Amino acid sequence: INAEYMGIIRNLMKPIIVLICLLLGLVVGEHLLSPSPKSMKTGKGMLRVSRCALAFSSVEDPLFARIIEVHQNSLILSREECSKLRISTPPFKIQTFKILGDGEDDSEDCNNESYELEVTTSKISLSAQCQVGLVRAITTLIHLAKMNNTTKEIEIAEVPIKIKDSPRFSYRGLMIDTARHFIKKATIKRILDGMMHAKLSVLHWHIADDDSIPMYSTSFPDLTKYTAFSPEHVYTPDDIKEIVKYATERGVRVIPEVDSPGHSRAVGLHPNFREIVAGFSSVWPYDVPDVYRIHGGPPTAALDPSMDKSYEFVKGIIKDLNLYFNGGAVHMGGDEVMAQSWDERKSIREFMKKHGLLDYNDLQTWWMNETRKVVTSVNPKLQTIYWTNEDSFQLKYPRGDVVQYWGSSSQIHKLQGLYPFNTFILSPNDYLYLDCSLGNPYGGNSWCGDFKTWARMWTFEPTSFGLAESKILGAEACAWGELMNDFNLEDRLWPRMLSLAETLWEPKKGADLNITKVVIKLNDFSKRLHSMNIPTSAITGHYCEINAQQCFQKWQRFILSLIHI
Questions:
Q1: pLDDT digits (tens, 9 = 90+) for 87-144
Q2: Which residues contact 14 (CB under 8 A, 6 or more apart)?
Q3: Nearest to residue 265, comparing CAs of 256, 257, 274?
Q4: Buried residues in 33-43 as b, exposed as e (16+ CB within 10 A)
Q5: Percentage of the chain exceeding pLDDT 90
Q6: What is the rounded distance in angstroms from the CA atom of residue 432 to the CA atom of residue 44?
Q7: Which of 256, 258, 267, 307 could form a disulfide bond with 208, CB atoms 3.0-4.6 angstroms apart?
Q8: In this predicted structure, what is the pLDDT of residue 389?
Q9: Is 29 exposed, middle or buried (0-12, 13-18, 19+ CB in 10 A)?
Q10: What's the predicted TM-score (pTM) here?
Q11: Contacts of residue 61, Cβ cutoff 8 Å, sequence gap at least 6
């Protein structure tokens, strides 16, 4: 075939290729950015630059400099590698600009995630007010850049590119549970790497429960001798600070939770604190309501609100948390307090009578008020967060508390009337509980029903249940640890967590959604995590990974019917 005929064939093929791409819901060269930016303008050019030529411009801000130091190797080859490859090219600077803001710019507490990114054939520039915004900008740049392993170049299509981006909701969370199964530090770090690439903002660390307390306490140095599963299952202060630092460098806040007054039986494993745990020594029959509500764990118990020693213990733990963490908040738990634990103590009933407390809801409200004072005495800036669901709607939360709802989505509409002066984190178990369908530790069925698939999570829209967007801080998926450990936790998270991440970052979904494109993005995200040695679950068969349009076109209308838009 001569050159003339080849030219004719190429011209005939161009519209066919464009049509195929449009059928896939994509345009030629479209970047699979996840989550999608708020505003993105593109051109038709291509930037190719050697990874040996790339270099970040110097910055004066030490926080910005640290972020660049941590992440530059994702784009730039080391001098040693370039020397071995004998690549020598003029430098191509990645310009980094710090935008002046509201006076918090030089603080690690600066939490403005907005950023701007510009790429042309002659420059790359990143702008942000805060270090977390710079993390988001660098993450987007990494996603834009395709690595050519043959030429050792990065290739960025559709330049010039101009992106202005910021999240819809500030709280985009994941909860992990290290009380039911100890999770190794290396696993937590890989989870944080995945969170950075999904632009998730909060790791909620459920670090203590009835089963164990694996956190070393500076206030009570021998606590974990009794409350950890073994000496190997302990997070030292250095371990925790290392994880927190690692998270900060990836744009993630770590918020610790030590549940109270319920879910506290492990406290009583320490002989000096056994007296403050009501119900610790009781042998409860299985037909007593709520005793074994968390199937597969030990019987639950509750701290005694009538004892000063209970508050002394809480103060010591809050001091530890304040020393180890920098997320600006502490989760105080507050759910599933078993009344039978308090019932067995005459001293508690006398305490309630003395203080005019009519029932156990009043007693728990008393506990929350007193422990909140403890938190404030340790650090007045710490935000307090509490769980709630349908069973605890009788509790009262003062103005300013953050309430995390984990009940059925059908009851979300009640929150605004019940708690008009609070803001909310939404974790409805029928959308965002990642342990559902795994069964229970006795071989029975899961209490929360079916597996929450990527599509189920993707259809979750926080404002669809009667709660004003101004009251919603965001949402969080929960990976409870009864049946999750180091070997299966990560593939329970990824890539379906990206479904939630996109909902919480991007503008509210409209009617022009393309399911095929979502599947392609999820699979692309999985490939990115695999390149970082992070395991993921498959979301469809390999055939449908390759032929997404053919497989998912018929599901478009069905999945869209599940979304309230």
A1: 777 889 999 999 876 655 556 788 999 999 999 999 999 999 999 999 999 999 999 9
A2: none
A3: 274
A4: bbbbbeebebe
A5: 75
A6: 40
A7: 258
A8: 96
A9: exposed
A10: 0.91
A11: 98, 105, 106
